[in-house]
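Exercise 7.
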Amino acid sequence: MHRFFVNKISDNQAIIQGEDYSHIVTVLRLKINEEIAVFNYEHGEFLAKITDINTKEKIILLQIIKKIKDREKTNIKVIAIISLIKNDKMDFVIEKLTELGITQIIPVITKRTVVKINDIEKKLKRWEKIIYSAVKQCGRVTKPEIFSVVNSFKELLKIVPENSFKLLIWEKEDKRYLIDEIFNLKDVESICFFIGPEGGFEQSEVQELLKNGFLSVSLGDTTLRAETAVILTAGVIMQKVRRSKWKN
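Solution. The predicted structure, written as C-alpha cells, is:
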C-alpha cells in the first residue's frame, strides 16, 4: 500500500499537498474512495480513504479509517557520527541509516575530510528529502534527526550525550571488536558511533576522542569503504537494540 506523510491529523481527517499531491494524482492516478496509508511522526500510521481531490488548490482530502500502528518507541537512542564522504555516497549512507532505524545523524568535518559543501542549507534540504523517501519506503513512523555539519570535535562533544556509550570505529584497533562490545553491553540510554573519512582519522584525532570517552573498536581484518563501515556498524547495533529488553 502507498504511504504518505501528513503534517496534521484532526477530527479523523488529514490533507496531502505539495509533491505528494502531484505524485498521487499524476503518477499513481489514485481516485476518490481509494485507500492509502498515512503517517505522522507524533501519532503513528493510519489507513485513510481519499474523499476529495481539489485540482484548483492542489489538495487531497482524506478520511481516517483506522490506526495501523503506533509511533515506534525505543529505550535506546542510537547516534551515527559520520565524517563527510563524497556526495552520492553520503546520500546513500543517510538513506540506509534511516532504513535501519538510527535516531540521529551527525555529519562532521575531520582533518582528512575532502568533501566541501558550499550551501549547507541546500544540502540539509536534500538530506531531509532522502530521509523522507526512505521513511516512506521502509515503513518507519519516526524519522532520524539530522544535524547541520559539525566543524570541530569541540562542537561535536557538546552535542553527544555525556552518558552515551561512545564507539570509535578505527581500522588500527586490533584488540576490541564491535560485535563483542555491543552484544556484551547492558543498561545504556544511548549509543553513538563515529566513522571517519575515506582516508581515516589522524592519530591526534584518535587520541582526542579516546581522551573524551570514546572506545576504539574494529570491524574486522579487512579495510572497508567508509559507507560499508557505516552500514555494518549501524546494522550490528540496531540488531542488538531491537532484540534487547533494556529499560530506561
